[in-house]
Fold:
Amino acid sequence: MSILHNKKILVAVTAGIAAYKAAILVRGLIKKGADVKVILTPEALHFVTPLTLSTLSKHEVEWEFFGERGDWNNHVEYALWADYMIIAPCTANTLSAMADGICNNLVLATYLSAKCPVFFAPAMDLDMYQHPTTKRNIETLQTNGNILIPAESGELASGLVGEGRMAEPEHIIEFVEKSIQENLPLYGKRFLISAGPTYENIDPVRFIGNYSSGKMGYELAKAAKQLGAEVTLVSGPSNESVNGYSINLEKVISAQNMYDAMHQHYPTADVVIMSAAVADYRPKEQATQKIKKDNENLTIELVKNPDILKSLGDKKTHQVLVGFALETNNEMEYAKAKLEKKNLDVIVLNSMQDKDAGFQKNTNKITIIDRTGAHQNFDAKPKNEVAFDILNYLITKKLN
Structure:
Protein backbone atom coordinates (compact mmCIF):
# COMPACT_ATOMS: atom_id res chain seq x y z
CA MET A 1 0.00 0.00 0.00
CA SER A 2 1.34 3.40 -0.96
CA ILE A 3 1.97 6.00 1.71
CA LEU A 4 -0.45 8.12 -0.37
CA HIS A 5 -3.38 5.81 0.29
CA ASN A 6 -6.36 7.80 1.65
CA LYS A 7 -4.35 11.03 1.56
CA LYS A 8 -6.09 14.18 0.33
CA ILE A 9 -3.97 15.77 -2.38
CA LEU A 10 -4.68 19.10 -4.05
CA VAL A 11 -3.07 19.40 -7.49
CA ALA A 12 -2.68 22.98 -8.76
CA VAL A 13 -2.04 23.37 -12.49
CA THR A 14 -0.54 26.54 -14.00
CA ALA A 15 -0.17 27.75 -17.58
CA GLY A 16 2.73 25.82 -19.08
CA ILE A 17 2.89 23.32 -21.92
CA ALA A 18 3.65 20.65 -19.29
CA ALA A 19 0.08 21.09 -18.03
CA TYR A 20 -0.92 18.18 -20.25
CA LYS A 21 1.05 15.94 -17.87
CA ALA A 22 -1.28 16.96 -15.03
CA ALA A 23 -3.80 14.41 -16.28
CA ILE A 24 -1.19 11.66 -16.00
CA LEU A 25 -0.19 12.92 -12.55
CA VAL A 26 -3.78 12.91 -11.30
CA ARG A 27 -4.34 9.42 -12.69
CA GLY A 28 -1.16 8.17 -11.01
CA LEU A 29 -2.13 9.63 -7.65
CA ILE A 30 -5.59 8.06 -7.90
CA LYS A 31 -3.98 4.67 -8.60
CA LYS A 32 -1.98 5.10 -5.38
CA GLY A 33 -5.25 5.41 -3.47
CA ALA A 34 -5.19 9.19 -2.97
CA ASP A 35 -8.25 11.43 -2.99
CA VAL A 36 -7.37 14.14 -5.52
CA LYS A 37 -8.87 17.56 -6.23
CA VAL A 38 -7.61 19.88 -8.97
CA ILE A 39 -7.56 23.66 -9.31
CA LEU A 40 -6.11 25.67 -12.19
CA THR A 41 -5.03 29.17 -13.06
CA PRO A 42 -7.32 30.70 -15.70
CA GLU A 43 -4.52 30.66 -18.29
CA ALA A 44 -3.97 26.92 -17.73
CA LEU A 45 -7.25 26.34 -19.60
CA HIS A 46 -5.31 26.94 -22.82
CA PHE A 47 -3.36 23.74 -22.17
CA VAL A 48 -5.69 21.29 -20.42
CA THR A 49 -9.45 20.98 -20.02
CA PRO A 50 -11.31 20.87 -16.71
CA LEU A 51 -13.46 18.06 -18.09
CA THR A 52 -10.45 15.77 -18.42
CA LEU A 53 -9.22 16.50 -14.91
CA SER A 54 -12.65 16.29 -13.28
CA THR A 55 -13.32 12.95 -14.99
CA LEU A 56 -10.04 11.55 -13.67
CA SER A 57 -10.29 13.02 -10.17
CA LYS A 58 -14.07 12.53 -9.78
CA HIS A 59 -14.25 16.03 -8.30
CA GLU A 60 -15.32 19.34 -9.78
CA VAL A 61 -12.38 21.34 -11.12
CA GLU A 62 -12.29 25.09 -10.48
CA TRP A 63 -10.14 27.92 -11.85
CA GLU A 64 -11.90 31.13 -10.76
CA PHE A 65 -12.95 32.68 -7.47
CA PHE A 66 -16.54 32.62 -8.73
CA GLY A 67 -18.07 29.59 -10.46
CA GLU A 68 -20.41 29.57 -13.43
CA ARG A 69 -23.43 29.95 -11.12
CA GLY A 70 -21.83 32.81 -9.26
CA ASP A 71 -20.85 30.57 -6.33
CA TRP A 72 -17.78 31.53 -4.34
CA ASN A 73 -14.97 28.99 -4.71
CA ASN A 74 -13.49 29.23 -1.26
CA HIS A 75 -9.70 28.94 -1.46
CA VAL A 76 -9.51 28.45 2.31
CA GLU A 77 -11.67 25.32 2.09
CA TYR A 78 -9.35 23.85 -0.54
CA ALA A 79 -6.32 24.70 1.58
CA LEU A 80 -7.76 23.18 4.76
CA TRP A 81 -9.01 20.07 2.93
CA ALA A 82 -5.61 19.07 1.60
CA ASP A 83 -3.06 16.89 3.36
CA TYR A 84 -0.59 17.84 0.62
CA MET A 85 -0.57 20.36 -2.22
CA ILE A 86 1.33 19.79 -5.47
CA ILE A 87 1.80 22.68 -7.91
CA ALA A 88 2.67 21.06 -11.23
CA PRO A 89 3.61 22.55 -13.56
CA CYS A 90 4.82 25.58 -11.66
CA THR A 91 5.72 28.23 -14.22
CA ALA A 92 8.24 31.05 -13.81
CA ASN A 93 5.36 33.49 -13.44
CA THR A 94 3.70 31.46 -10.66
CA LEU A 95 7.07 30.94 -8.95
CA SER A 96 7.58 34.69 -8.86
CA ALA A 97 4.08 35.37 -7.59
CA MET A 98 4.40 32.72 -4.85
CA ALA A 99 7.73 34.16 -3.72
CA ASP A 100 6.32 37.69 -3.61
CA GLY A 101 3.01 36.79 -1.98
CA ILE A 102 0.89 37.90 -4.93
CA CYS A 103 -2.71 36.72 -4.71
CA ASN A 104 -4.54 37.31 -7.99
CA ASN A 105 -5.96 33.87 -8.85
CA LEU A 106 -7.44 30.83 -7.17
CA VAL A 107 -4.18 28.83 -7.17
CA LEU A 108 -2.17 31.60 -5.51
CA ALA A 109 -4.86 32.35 -2.94
CA THR A 110 -5.06 28.67 -2.04
CA TYR A 111 -1.27 28.41 -1.81
CA LEU A 112 -1.12 31.36 0.58
CA SER A 113 -3.79 29.73 2.77
CA ALA A 114 -2.24 26.26 2.81
CA LYS A 115 -1.34 24.74 6.17
CA CYS A 116 -0.16 21.47 4.60
CA PRO A 117 3.21 20.70 2.98
CA VAL A 118 3.42 22.25 -0.50
CA PHE A 119 5.42 20.62 -3.31
CA PHE A 120 6.22 22.59 -6.45
CA ALA A 121 7.54 21.23 -9.76
CA PRO A 122 9.03 24.01 -11.91
CA ALA A 123 8.55 23.87 -15.68
CA MET A 124 10.04 26.44 -18.05
CA ASP A 125 12.61 26.93 -20.76
CA LEU A 126 16.33 26.40 -20.15
CA ASP A 127 17.39 30.06 -19.87
CA MET A 128 14.39 30.93 -17.72
CA TYR A 129 15.21 28.12 -15.29
CA GLN A 130 18.85 29.26 -15.07
CA HIS A 131 17.98 32.94 -14.61
CA PRO A 132 19.16 34.38 -11.27
CA THR A 133 15.67 35.65 -10.50
CA THR A 134 14.21 32.17 -10.88
CA LYS A 135 16.92 30.67 -8.70
CA ARG A 136 16.28 33.35 -6.08
CA ASN A 137 12.53 32.67 -6.16
CA ILE A 138 13.08 28.93 -5.74
CA GLU A 139 15.37 29.59 -2.76
CA THR A 140 12.75 31.89 -1.23
CA LEU A 141 10.06 29.22 -1.56
CA GLN A 142 12.32 26.60 0.00
CA THR A 143 13.20 28.96 2.83
CA ASN A 144 9.46 29.36 3.43
CA GLY A 145 9.14 25.60 3.86
CA ASN A 146 7.97 24.58 0.40
CA ILE A 147 9.44 21.45 -1.16
CA LEU A 148 11.13 21.64 -4.56
CA ILE A 149 10.64 18.78 -7.02
CA PRO A 150 13.66 19.52 -9.25
CA ALA A 151 13.17 20.08 -12.95
CA GLU A 152 14.60 17.44 -15.26
CA SER A 153 16.79 17.68 -18.35
CA GLY A 154 15.58 16.88 -21.84
CA GLU A 155 14.01 18.36 -24.93
CA LEU A 156 12.03 21.52 -24.18
CA ALA A 157 9.05 23.06 -25.96
CA SER A 158 11.35 25.66 -27.53
CA GLY A 159 13.41 22.95 -29.18
CA LEU A 160 16.33 23.52 -26.85
CA VAL A 161 17.70 20.63 -24.81
CA GLY A 162 18.57 21.12 -21.17
CA GLU A 163 17.28 21.54 -17.64
CA GLY A 164 13.83 23.02 -17.10
CA ARG A 165 11.25 20.44 -18.09
CA MET A 166 8.79 19.40 -15.41
CA ALA A 167 9.62 16.15 -13.67
CA GLU A 168 7.73 13.22 -15.16
CA PRO A 169 4.49 12.44 -13.29
CA GLU A 170 5.77 9.08 -12.04
CA HIS A 171 8.91 10.81 -10.73
CA ILE A 172 6.79 13.44 -8.96
CA ILE A 173 4.78 10.70 -7.26
CA GLU A 174 7.94 8.82 -6.22
CA PHE A 175 9.44 12.07 -4.90
CA VAL A 176 6.35 12.91 -2.86
CA GLU A 177 6.11 9.37 -1.46
CA LYS A 178 9.76 9.40 -0.40
CA SER A 179 9.51 12.88 1.10
CA ILE A 180 6.46 11.93 3.15
CA GLN A 181 8.02 8.68 4.31
CA GLU A 182 11.27 10.33 5.38
CA ASN A 183 9.29 12.65 7.63
CA LEU A 184 7.32 9.89 9.34
CA PRO A 185 8.25 9.27 13.00
CA LEU A 186 9.39 5.66 12.50
CA TYR A 187 11.32 6.19 9.27
CA GLY A 188 14.57 4.24 9.38
CA LYS A 189 13.44 2.04 12.29
CA ARG A 190 13.32 -1.72 11.83
CA PHE A 191 10.43 -3.43 13.61
CA LEU A 192 10.18 -7.14 14.35
CA ILE A 193 6.69 -8.19 15.44
CA SER A 194 5.24 -11.58 16.30
CA ALA A 195 1.55 -12.39 16.00
CA GLY A 196 -1.01 -15.14 16.33
CA PRO A 197 -0.95 -18.51 18.10
CA THR A 198 1.43 -21.40 17.67
CA TYR A 199 0.22 -24.92 16.95
CA GLU A 200 2.00 -27.89 18.52
CA ASN A 201 1.26 -31.08 16.63
CA ILE A 202 -0.01 -34.17 18.45
CA ASP A 203 -0.34 -36.17 15.25
CA PRO A 204 -0.85 -35.22 11.58
CA VAL A 205 -4.44 -34.01 12.21
CA ARG A 206 -4.48 -32.72 15.81
CA PHE A 207 -2.63 -30.01 17.67
CA ILE A 208 -2.42 -28.07 20.92
CA GLY A 209 -3.12 -24.36 20.41
CA ASN A 210 -5.02 -21.37 21.69
CA TYR A 211 -7.71 -18.94 20.55
CA SER A 212 -5.43 -16.11 19.44
CA SER A 213 -6.51 -14.61 16.10
CA GLY A 214 -3.37 -12.56 15.53
CA LYS A 215 -5.41 -9.35 15.10
CA MET A 216 -3.34 -7.27 17.53
CA GLY A 217 0.00 -8.22 16.01
CA TYR A 218 -1.20 -7.64 12.46
CA GLU A 219 -2.59 -4.22 13.37
CA LEU A 220 0.71 -3.33 15.02
CA ALA A 221 2.60 -4.34 11.89
CA LYS A 222 0.34 -2.28 9.62
CA ALA A 223 0.45 0.75 11.93
CA ALA A 224 4.25 0.60 12.16
CA LYS A 225 4.45 0.52 8.37
CA GLN A 226 2.11 3.50 8.07
CA LEU A 227 4.39 5.39 10.46
CA GLY A 228 7.39 4.71 8.24
CA ALA A 229 9.04 1.64 9.75
CA GLU A 230 10.55 -1.30 7.94
CA VAL A 231 8.51 -4.22 9.31
CA THR A 232 9.05 -7.96 9.60
CA LEU A 233 6.02 -9.86 10.90
CA VAL A 234 6.48 -13.41 12.16
CA SER A 235 3.02 -14.94 12.31
CA GLY A 236 1.62 -18.18 13.59
CA PRO A 237 -1.51 -19.59 11.91
CA SER A 238 -3.91 -16.68 11.34
CA ASN A 239 -6.62 -15.56 8.94
CA GLU A 240 -5.47 -11.95 9.21
CA SER A 241 -3.80 -10.25 6.23
CA VAL A 242 -1.27 -7.54 5.43
CA ASN A 243 -2.22 -7.39 1.75
CA GLY A 244 -1.43 -3.99 0.27
CA TYR A 245 1.31 -3.27 2.81
CA SER A 246 5.01 -3.64 2.09
CA ILE A 247 5.62 -5.91 5.07
CA ASN A 248 7.99 -8.88 5.23
CA LEU A 249 5.59 -11.63 6.38
CA GLU A 250 7.11 -14.87 7.62
CA LYS A 251 4.60 -17.59 8.49
CA VAL A 252 5.39 -20.25 11.08
CA ILE A 253 3.51 -23.02 12.84
CA SER A 254 5.16 -24.08 16.07
CA ALA A 255 6.85 -22.32 18.97
CA GLN A 256 10.20 -23.65 17.82
CA ASN A 257 9.56 -22.26 14.32
CA MET A 258 8.76 -18.87 15.84
CA TYR A 259 11.79 -19.03 18.13
CA ASP A 260 14.07 -19.64 15.14
CA ALA A 261 12.50 -16.88 13.02
CA MET A 262 12.56 -14.28 15.78
CA HIS A 263 16.20 -14.98 16.61
CA GLN A 264 17.14 -14.85 12.93
CA HIS A 265 15.83 -11.29 12.54
CA TYR A 266 16.56 -10.09 16.09
CA PRO A 267 20.14 -8.77 15.67
CA THR A 268 19.14 -6.17 13.06
CA ALA A 269 15.86 -5.08 14.70
CA ASP A 270 15.49 -1.75 16.51
CA VAL A 271 12.11 -2.48 18.10
CA VAL A 272 10.75 -5.96 18.87
CA ILE A 273 7.11 -6.47 19.86
CA MET A 274 6.22 -9.99 21.00
CA SER A 275 2.44 -10.02 20.71
CA ALA A 276 2.12 -13.68 19.72
CA ALA A 277 0.36 -16.11 22.06
CA VAL A 278 2.99 -18.84 22.11
CA ALA A 279 2.02 -22.29 23.38
CA ASP A 280 3.80 -22.96 26.67
CA TYR A 281 3.99 -26.73 26.11
CA ARG A 282 4.24 -29.20 23.23
CA PRO A 283 3.84 -32.99 23.07
CA LYS A 284 7.08 -34.77 23.90
CA GLU A 285 6.41 -37.17 21.04
CA GLN A 286 4.53 -36.42 17.84
CA ALA A 287 2.77 -39.39 16.31
CA THR A 288 3.54 -39.89 12.64
CA GLN A 289 0.13 -41.45 12.03
CA LYS A 290 -3.31 -40.39 13.19
CA ILE A 291 -3.91 -41.64 16.73
CA LYS A 292 -6.88 -44.01 16.83
CA LYS A 293 -9.45 -43.76 19.61
CA ASP A 294 -8.95 -47.34 20.76
CA ASN A 295 -8.71 -46.55 24.47
CA GLU A 296 -11.03 -44.75 26.86
CA ASN A 297 -8.18 -42.53 28.01
CA LEU A 298 -5.26 -40.94 26.21
CA THR A 299 -2.23 -39.60 28.02
CA ILE A 300 0.01 -37.15 26.23
CA GLU A 301 3.27 -36.18 27.90
CA LEU A 302 4.04 -32.49 27.44
CA VAL A 303 7.38 -30.71 27.58
CA LYS A 304 8.02 -27.01 27.92
CA ASN A 305 8.55 -24.87 24.85
CA PRO A 306 11.42 -22.39 24.72
CA ASP A 307 10.54 -19.03 26.24
CA ILE A 308 11.02 -16.84 23.19
CA LEU A 309 10.54 -13.51 24.95
CA LYS A 310 12.97 -14.33 27.77
CA SER A 311 15.56 -15.58 25.30
CA LEU A 312 15.31 -12.28 23.41
CA GLY A 313 15.62 -10.34 26.65
CA ASP A 314 18.74 -12.31 27.56
CA LYS A 315 20.37 -11.35 24.26
CA LYS A 316 19.18 -7.75 24.17
CA THR A 317 21.76 -5.19 23.11
CA HIS A 318 20.28 -2.10 21.44
CA GLN A 319 16.71 -3.30 20.93
CA VAL A 320 13.60 -1.84 22.53
CA LEU A 321 11.81 -5.00 23.65
CA VAL A 322 8.05 -5.03 24.19
CA GLY A 323 6.02 -7.90 25.62
CA PHE A 324 2.33 -8.60 26.20
CA ALA A 325 0.66 -9.96 29.31
CA LEU A 326 -2.85 -11.40 29.13
CA GLU A 327 -3.82 -12.12 32.73
CA THR A 328 -6.88 -13.36 34.60
CA ASN A 329 -6.01 -12.15 38.12
CA ASN A 330 -3.43 -10.03 39.95
CA GLU A 331 -2.82 -8.41 36.59
CA MET A 332 -0.46 -5.57 37.53
CA GLU A 333 1.60 -7.75 39.84
CA TYR A 334 2.12 -10.48 37.25
CA ALA A 335 2.77 -8.03 34.42
CA LYS A 336 5.48 -6.16 36.38
CA ALA A 337 7.10 -9.44 37.38
CA LYS A 338 7.14 -10.56 33.74
CA LEU A 339 8.65 -7.27 32.64
CA GLU A 340 11.49 -7.64 35.15
CA LYS A 341 12.10 -11.35 34.66
CA LYS A 342 12.28 -11.14 30.88
CA ASN A 343 14.32 -7.92 30.70
CA LEU A 344 11.66 -5.97 28.82
CA ASP A 345 11.53 -2.24 28.26
CA VAL A 346 7.73 -2.12 28.09
CA ILE A 347 4.90 -4.53 28.74
CA VAL A 348 1.34 -4.21 27.44
CA LEU A 349 -1.21 -5.59 29.89
CA ASN A 350 -4.74 -6.68 29.12
CA SER A 351 -7.10 -8.67 31.29
CA MET A 352 -9.26 -11.65 30.43
CA GLN A 353 -11.71 -10.22 32.94
CA ASP A 354 -12.39 -7.26 30.66
CA LYS A 355 -15.14 -7.83 28.10
CA ASP A 356 -13.34 -5.57 25.59
CA ALA A 357 -10.03 -7.47 25.73
CA GLY A 358 -8.81 -10.94 24.89
CA PHE A 359 -8.58 -13.33 21.96
CA GLN A 360 -10.61 -13.05 18.75
CA LYS A 361 -12.05 -9.64 19.59
CA ASN A 362 -11.88 -6.53 17.46
CA THR A 363 -11.31 -4.33 20.51
CA ASN A 364 -8.72 -4.22 23.24
CA LYS A 365 -8.26 -2.36 26.51
CA ILE A 366 -4.66 -1.99 27.60
CA THR A 367 -2.33 -0.65 30.24
CA ILE A 368 1.26 0.10 29.24
CA ILE A 369 3.91 -0.35 31.93
CA ASP A 370 7.59 0.56 31.67
CA ARG A 371 10.67 -0.44 33.65
CA THR A 372 10.27 2.37 36.15
CA GLY A 373 6.87 0.98 37.16
CA ALA A 374 5.08 3.94 35.61
CA HIS A 375 1.94 2.95 33.77
CA GLN A 376 -0.60 4.49 31.43
CA ASN A 377 -4.19 3.29 31.07
CA PHE A 378 -6.12 3.44 27.81
CA ASP A 379 -9.83 3.18 27.11
CA ALA A 380 -11.26 0.26 25.16
CA LYS A 381 -10.74 0.85 21.43
CA PRO A 382 -10.65 -1.02 18.13
CA LYS A 383 -7.37 -2.87 17.82
CA ASN A 384 -6.17 -0.72 14.93
CA GLU A 385 -6.41 2.33 17.21
CA VAL A 386 -4.78 0.43 20.09
CA ALA A 387 -1.85 -0.30 17.78
CA PHE A 388 -1.29 3.42 17.22
CA ASP A 389 -1.58 4.06 20.98
CA ILE A 390 1.21 1.55 21.62
CA LEU A 391 3.45 2.90 18.84
CA ASN A 392 2.89 6.54 19.81
CA TYR A 393 3.83 5.63 23.38
CA LEU A 394 7.07 4.07 22.12
CA ILE A 395 7.80 7.07 19.90
CA THR A 396 7.27 9.49 22.78
CA LYS A 397 8.82 7.53 25.63
CA LYS A 398 11.42 5.19 24.15
CA LEU A 399 12.55 6.25 20.69
CA ASN A 400 13.31 9.95 21.14
The CA atoms of residues 193 and 273 lie 5 Å apart. The two ends are 27 Å apart (CA to CA).
